[in-house]
Amino acid sequence: MAKQQFEAESKRLLDLMINSIYSKREVFLRELISNASDAIDKMYYQALTDDSITFNQSDYYIRIDTDKDKRQLTVTDTGIGMTKEELESNLGVIAKSGSLAFKKENEIKDGHDIIGQFGVGFYAAFMVADQVTVESKALGEEQAYRWYSEGADGFIIEPCDKKETGTQITLTIKESTEDDDYDQFLEPFQLQTIIKKYSDFIRYPIKMELSEEKLKEGSEDEYETIVEEKTVNSMIPIWKKNKAELTDDDYNQFYQEKHYGFDQPLEYIHVSVDGNIRYQAILYIPETAPYNYYSAEYEKGLELYSNGVLIMNKAPELLPDYFSFVKGLVDSEDLSLNISREMLQHDRQLKLIEKNLVKKIKQELLKLLRNDREKYEKFYNAFGRQLKYGVYSDFGQNKDTLKDLLLFYSSTEEKLVTLSEYVERMKDEQSFIYYATGETNARIERLPQTEMVRDKGYEILYFTDDIDEFAIKMLGEYEGKSFKSVSSGDLGLDDEEQGESDQVNEEDQAIFDKMKDILKGKVSDVRSSKRLKSHPVCLSNEGDISIEMEKVLSMMPDNQGIQAEKVLEINTNHDIFKAIQAIFSSDPDQIETYTNILYNQALLIEGLPIEDPISYTNDVWKVMQ
Ligand code: ADP
Ligand code: MG
Known about the structure:
Elements: H1 8-21, H2 27-49, E1 62-67, E2 72-77, H3 84-92, H4 98-105, E3 129-137, E4 144-149, E5 155-160, E6 166-173, H5 188-199, E7 206-215, E8 223-231, H6 248-257, E9 265-274, E10 278-286, E11 302-306, E12 309-315, E13 327-331, H7 347-371, H8 373-392, H9 399-402, E14 408-410, E15 416-417, H10 419-425, E16 432-437, H11 441-445, H12 451-455, E17 460-463, H13 466-475, E18 477-478, E19 481-485, H14 495-502, H15 506-518, E20 525-528, E21 537-542, H16 547-554, E22 565-570, H17 575-583, H18 588-606, H19 613-624
Parallel strand pairs: 1-7, 11-13, 16-17, 16-19, 20-22
Antiparallel strand pairs: 1-2, 2-6, 3-4, 3-6, 4-5, 7-8, 9-10, 10-13, 11-12, 14-15, 14-17, 18-19, 21-22
C-alpha cells in the first residue's frame, strides 16, 4: 500500500501542532473523546431525518482501553464512523473539520452538541504517540478502513475488518524519558482523572475497565482484585439540569467534588441566561476565606466550559476583584475559542458575561442581607474587607455597586448596620454620618472625641479596618449625607454649641498660644474643645488626612511620611485646665511640663507612639512629687 503524503503545509503544521499549540499533553484525550462524542451526535442528527435509524441513547458509548505491554491506548466509539474518503480528507488534511462541514450542511445553528470546528484536535494524538491507527466503519457501509500514520511523513489507508459501525483509534504511546512521563497515559486511574477533568460532561458514557481491591467473599482479611467496567464521566452537567430537580445537597456536593473549598458554601447561585450571549453558571459564595485570600498568592477566577468541555481552569476575566471570593463555573456555547481551545478570541464575550454575573452576585448578596442577616454577617466577616477595598480601588468606579453591601458597627445599635439603616435613623437636625476610627470597638468606645456626638444622641459608626476610612473617603457621601470623623476639626454640630465654645477669653487664648509654642512642629494648633465632656484633652485633625490614615500610611512600604495635621484640643471645663489657669503666670516651667504630659496622653489615647517615653515619664514623676 503506497504511503500518501500529508499536504505540504500540513507537514509543517503537524510539527507545529505537536510542539506548540497545546500547553498540556493530556488534552489529547479531551480531543479524541470530543471527536467520539461528535461522531455519536452525528448519528443522532442522522436519525432525526432517516427513519431507518433508531437512536437508542443506551447503544451509544465511548470506551477507553489500555494494554501496557503493547503500550497501547484505545479510544472506541459507536458513532457515525468515516468512509475511506472521509478518512483521507478529514484526517489527511490538517485544519479540515468534517464536523464543521456537518454542522453547516445540517444547518445546526446553535452548535449545541457538536464540538469540533478547527480540524486540528485529532493530531494532538501525536503529542503522546509514535503511531496512530484509526479503524472506522461508516454508517451504511459494508467495508471498514484502516488509517495508519507515524507522524509527519504521511499515512496509509487500507481495508480492514470491523463489524460495528464506529471508530476505534489506537495510539502507541511514546516511551517515557527522564523529562517526560508518557507512562501515565497507560494508567487507567490517571486516565480516569484526565477524563474527569476535561470530559466529565460529555453526554455519552465513557467506559473503562477499572480494577479495585475488594474483600474476598466470606473472608475478613483476604483481598482480591476485581476488574469492573465503569462509566467514569457524570455525563449531565449539574448546571444544565433544571433548578427544580436539584436540592441544596446536590449543589453542596458539587462544591465538594469540585474542591472549591473545604468549607460548605454559604450560598449558591444557579443561572441560565438566554440573552445576547447564552450561558449557564453555578456560583458559590464560600463560608470562610481561604487562608491566602488577602494575599497576592490568591488567584481569582471561574472555571470556563464550552459545551460541557473544560476550556480554562481559572478564567480571571469572569470576576471583578471585589467579588474575587466567588467560586464556580461558567459554560457557554457562544464563545469563540482559539485553536487550542485554551483561550478566547474575544474579550467582549467574557466582559458581557462578567457584567451579568456581577449583577447576579450583587442581587444575591442583597437578598441575603434582607432575608438572613446572620448568614450575611458571616459572609461579611469573611469578605467584607474585600468589598471595602472594592469601593476604594479603581478610583472608586465601583462604589455605587458596592455601597449597599457595606456594614459597620454602630454605637447605638451595638451591632453591624448598613449605611441605609444609619441614614434612616438620623435625627432631624443631624447633617452628617459620624464615624470614629480605632483598633477595636472597645477602644473606640472610650475615645474622648466621641463624647459630644454621643451626648447629642447621634449614632457613630466604628471603623476598625485599615481600609475603612479610605473607602468611606472614596465613597464621599451616602444618600446625600457626607461622612464626618468625630476627630475632625469641625464636627458640624448645631450653631449654639459652636458659638459658646468659640468665645475664648483673652487669658485662655494666651495659655493656648503658649502651649502651641511649646508644641511647635508637633501640632498645628491648640484649641478649646467643642467635643470633650469628661476628658481633659484629645487630638483632632484638620485637612484630608486623618490620624488613623496617617497610621495606615506609615505602615506601607512606600510610605512618604504623610502626616495628619493634628490639633490639641483642651477641655476648658476640666479641673486640669483650672489647675493650668492657676499657675499660668506664676510658674512657666510647670506649664511646659503639663503641656508635654497632656500632648503625650492625647497621643496615647489615639494609639500613637510617644516620641520620647523617657522624658514623658520624667515629666509625670516631676508632677507626682
Ligand atoms: P475537529 O474536531 O475540530 O473537526 P479534528 O482534527 O479533531 O477536528 O477532527 C477532524 C475531523 O475528523 C472531524 O471533523 C471529523 O469529521 C473526523 N473525525 C475525527 N474523529 C472522528 C471519530 N471518532 N469519528 C468520526 N469522525 C471523526
Ligand atoms: Mg476534534
